[in-house]
Amino acid sequence: MTREAAIARAEAFFDDGTFRETLARRVAMPTESQNPDRAEALVAYLEREMIPNLEKLGFKTEIVEHPAARAPFLIAERIEDPALPTVLGYGHGDVIRGLDADWDDGLSPWTMTDKGDRWYGRGVVDNKGQHAINLDALEAVLETRGRLGFNVKYLIEMGEEVGSPGLRELCADHRERLKADVLIGSDGPRLSEQRPTIFLGSRGGVSFDMWIDARDGGRHSGNWGGLLSNPAIQLSHAIASLVGPTGQIRLPDLVPPELPASVRRVLADCDIMEGPEGEEIEPWWGEPGLTPTERVFGWCSLEVLATEAGNPKTPVNAIPPRAWVRMQLRFVVDVDPFTVVPAVRRHLDRQGFSNVQVELMRDGLFNATRLDPDDPWVTWAVGSIQRTTGAKPAILPNLGGSLPNDAFSDILGMPTIWVPHSYPGCSQHAPNEHLPTHIVKEGLAIMAGLYWDLGEKPMLSV
Description:
Blueprint (H helix, E strand, L loop, with lengths): L2 H13 L2 H10 L11 H18 L3 E5 L8 E6 L7 E7 L20 E3 L2 E3 L7 H18 L5 E7 L9 H7 L1 H4 L3 E4 L11 E3 L1 E2 L1 E10 L5 E2 H4 L6 H12 L18 H7 L24 H6 L3 E9 L8 E2 L2 E10 L8 H11 L6 E10 L2 E2 L5 H14 L4 E3 L9 H6 L4 E3 L15 E3 H20 L6
């Protein structure tokens, strides 16, 4: 009954094909939450896969619905002793649309396929494969020790890919039931394929539209050019007043007051070498004075997501009557998303763009979260992973993208540790989603080590 034995048992699930069989069965379930025709598959995933898996491990389970949600949730609890520490696990069984016709020949989103050292299929990384790794690691520890040495609660949702509607309300309504000492979950990518990673929160996002309605209908560009204002030109200058030609945000209200020393310290050895498809990083883009890693994981970025004026596909010789742009601010803690649009409005008025209208997109707003890198839970998790792998993991203060982490950190009030089992080039949300098999085996070992250490040396002091 040793830590090494628990890790070996977890790795055996990979070696003997048991894990692959489980994940392939789950990938075959078309749990597209964006597709209203898949409602039955969402429920079936909980009933046919999650409940049997969790009940086998001694969990009590309940499917819970919420009027604010589009799909049900599963809450599971395994309480060994109320005096022991409690960990909350999280996963989502829904996936993005399969995009069946766009996958490479011989691949299908609903059939897990081996190709080299990769497993292909929708959900292998987002998120079926990730919570499957964690549950199998939990099983390995339980089988080895005969008990866990801590309590576990699990929350599985089926609507993360549509913005997690109802998740925050569910957490608020079941705050006591879901209460735990720490969240340990898995989602998103590692810093790189080869380096184990933990991240402590996620950047937030706020989307807003800006537009100019100049007049009804276009006007001949020859007869009226030089006489009438062009809303596309005016809007371009309005955008340029917010973000400079090298991507630097020009409005101080949209960035934090500073980069914390603890964030700078943990990011010092977390270099981003290349993009997910091997493209070269452009070090001149973004906030000057910051490294590329600091710009993604410690700072904010303001992007143009889409813009339109005139008839883009069939341009005509006319001054367009209207111009529109969708902007998105990816932000870190210390930036209040609800102050963004008012700040933009004031700025545009000061710059002489009072004719530019601005509107917040409520569906495109999610909060930023970050656990202090100096928190004892971070030290504990880093030590455990280093003990298992022999190497220090990358520590990211927050994911560059977004997760519903605020439901756990803000509403449930717990520290959050995320251990991703994917990598930046996994084609998440795209055709040909895949998972390197070495990450699977290493992920099983890492999580078995974490769970073993949690039961061996409870974090009662943090």
